[in-house]
Amino acid sequence: MEVLLGLRPSILCCPLSTCQSKRRYFNLRPRASLNEGNDSFYQAAIERASLRLRESHSPDPLLVDPYVGCLLPSNSLKDMNQQLHPYCLATKFIDDKLLETIQSSDGLKQVVLLTDGLDTRSYRLNWPTSTLIFDICPTQVFRGAVQKLQDAGAKIPRGCMSFHIPSESFDIENVLRSKGFSGTRPSIWVFQGFPVVNLASFKDILSIVSNLAMKGCLFLGEIPVWLAETEVADLSATKTWLDNLFMSYGFRVKAIEYDEVARNLSKDSARRASGVGTSIIFVAEHLRFSDDQMETWRSEFQRIEEEGDEEGFEEL
């Protein structure tokens, strides 16, 4: 289920003719409609929502999503499987890491979610006041979901703001900036459910995050193992690949095993997760300065240099 199939995003990358940045344009536009009954990406998003619904109604829920039911058919709980799914473990881990990081970090008010359009984190998590939430996802899925959520009474926590960033946008970076995102302020980024069909598309996402996130910011989430093109059972090779990939974009990454998450949550074997190995939970720290940080410092150095030249001229 974690592996997204079917649609191939057409990602266009064009270098900007400027000496200020190596930034590229990114178009994460799916080629087909995402709201058709036979659409494989939309069906994968529905399956993830179904897993959250079923976990919410289990006798000992790992997480509770009070809004997901409005996104699904009324018979979604039929033949409910009580077995804990790794997607739910990953979701719980991401939820907890998000809130823990935000609550323990002064000035961290920007959250960027790369999602499938049916994610409910904007509504169901207890965000601190003044948090800005940027949801990058397919427009057609988002529009249908947000209307259902609003009809069900779902609201963004008081004092917070949420912005939809269409994944179809030609320049994701500048659209984020136009909505109020700042690369000179701390941020945290989440990747779960966003449609990637090959390694090149995920590399483009890494590039976007690397360009916009300040040094020290976190990027966390869940990615399909098949991106690594290694044997699923070869955990060592997969971790080495992950290290090399993320470091090439300025991230120090750690892979988190599902069993480790389950142990930390004290989940017993009666509801042991099935299907572990098809995805990787990761937490990455950004080691580089953002483009906006570099531009700010470049401007400041230029100002100091110009002031120094003026003072020297006056002395002469």
Automatic annotation (TrEMBL):
A Pfam family annotated for this UniProt entry: LCM
Record keywords: Methyltransferase, Transferase
Taxonomy, superkingdom: Eukaryota
One record GO biological process: methylation
InterPro entries: Ppm1/Ppm2/Tcmp, SAM-dependent_MTases_sf
One annotated GO molecular function: methyltransferase activity
Alphabetical list of SUPFAM superfamilies matching this protein: S-adenosyl-L-methionine-dependent methyltransferases (SSF53335)
Name used for this protein in its record: Uncharacterized protein LOC104245438
Name of the gene this protein is made from: LOC104245438
